[in-house]
């Protein structure tokens, strides 16, 4: 019988292995050895004189091709098995890694990697690896789905497509300034890539009043209703948004108000994102702890940063001009990045 135990610390000299639970954009990363038909967590033997963290980094690179990642220790694990090391207890260190980019080629006996939404059924070490993942979950590295109670959405460029409104605004700026719409658009893109609000900055630079926001051009993204409908079966749905008066009515007219349990909008509350108070209002009225809530939005500065500061989980939906934001440091990194609303259903 195989026994798996866990420890907070142990003599470093006893550590013979490093195992790395890895994810990429919220999905699992597993390896397949070229001589096996099963899946396994990246990991391997510690080389003589090697620091165990360096072992983990090396094995992660060799077995998955990961070249840009964050890696953190979880705990010490041990395995005792009658057919392994003469039945003696052997020790390794368990790590968690979030992989951002991969190299094309692998540099080990691994045939290929797979990025999966769900855990595999055919494990290489079925008595060991599921236990490692469960321990990581218990220690808070892999949040349980049932810990999430509330999903809070932004509105603009998250549920609502604002591209036509921005197009109208850019044309009006061009008309008022005598510059071509193409030049205005290109300058705006450049500013958004530098983490500035392009339309607002251009109007300031040109010394003209920012044209009125024409909300009649707003429309739902094609997958908004299906996303809300599906998620509302398992979670409470809320809104935290910088919006003018009448957000509930506008969402009703768009056909999605029926899926939403709570609306916290800046005009009604008298406080706007990124002020953390609007998030605190939402959490208080929903009676939800920050760790049981997810903030979903397109703006790093307005949605992701303040929600993370409060301890909420975060999903950056890379739609609209917000997708051009350049992430500068750890405080701006969302837990999950997606390109559209439909992708969220892969994680929740």
TrEMBL record:
Keywords: Hydrolase, Magnesium, Metal-binding. InterPro entries: HAD-like_hydrolase, HAD-like_sf, HAD-SF_hydro_IA, HAD_2, HAD_sf, NUDIX_hydrolase-like_dom_sf, NUDIX_hydrolase_CS, NUDIX_hydrolase_dom. The keyword Magnesium applies. One of its GO terms (biological process) is small molecule metabolic process. SUPFAM superfamilies: HAD-like (SSF56784), Nudix (SSF55811). It holds the Pfam family NUDIX. GO terms for molecular function: metal ion binding; phosphatase activity. Its cofactor is Mg(2+). The keyword Zinc does not apply. Residues 12-146 form the Nudix hydrolase domain. It comes from the Bacteria. This is Nudix hydrolase domain-containing protein. It comes from Agathobacter rectalis (strain ATCC 33656 / DSM 3377 / JCM 17463 / KCTC 5835 / VPI 0990) (Eubacterium rectale).
């Amino acid at each position: 019988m195989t026994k798996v135990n866990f420890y907070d610390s142990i003599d470093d000299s006893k550590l013979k292995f490093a195992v790395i639970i890895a994810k990429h954009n919220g999905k699992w990363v597993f390896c397949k050895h070229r001589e096996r038909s099963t899946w396994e967590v990246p990991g391997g033997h510690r080389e003589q004189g090697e620091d165990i963290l360096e072992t983990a980094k090396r094995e992660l690179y060799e077995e998955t091709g990961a070249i840009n990642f964050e890696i953190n220790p979880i705990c010490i694990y041990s395995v005792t098995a009658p057919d392994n090391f003469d039945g003696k207890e052997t020790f390794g260190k368990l790590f968690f890694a979030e992989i951002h980019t991969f190299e094309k080629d692998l540099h080990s006996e691994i045939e290929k990697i797979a990025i999966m939404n769900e855990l595999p059924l055919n494990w290489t070490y079925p008595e060991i690896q599921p236990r490692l993942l469960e321990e990581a979950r218990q220690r808070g590295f892999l949040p349980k789905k049932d810990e999430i109670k509330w999903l809070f959405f932004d509105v603009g460029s998250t549920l609502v497509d604002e591209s036509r409104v921005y197009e109208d605004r850019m044309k009006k700026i061009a008309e008022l300034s005598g510059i071509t719409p193409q030049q205005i658009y290109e300058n705006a893109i450049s500013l958004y890539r530098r983490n500035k609000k392009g339309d607002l900055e251009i109007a300031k630079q040109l010394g003209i009043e920012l044209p009125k926001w024409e909300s009649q051009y707003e429309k739902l993204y094609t997958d908004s209703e299906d996303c809300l409908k599906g998620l509302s079966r398992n979670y409470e749905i809320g809104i935290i948004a910088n919006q003018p008066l009448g957000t509930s009515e506008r969402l009703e007219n768009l056909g999605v108000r029926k899926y939403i349990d709570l609306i916290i909008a800046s005009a009604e509350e008298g406080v706007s994102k990124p002020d953390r108070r609007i998030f605190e209002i939402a959490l208080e009225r929903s009676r939800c702890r920050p760790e049981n809530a997810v903030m979903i939005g397109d703006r790093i500065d307005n949605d992701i940063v303040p929600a993370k500061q409060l301890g909420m989980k975060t999903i950056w939906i890379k739609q609209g001009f917000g997708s051009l934001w350049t992430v500068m440091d750890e405080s701006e990194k969302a837990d999950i990045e997606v390109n559209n609303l439909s992708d969220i259903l892969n994680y929740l």
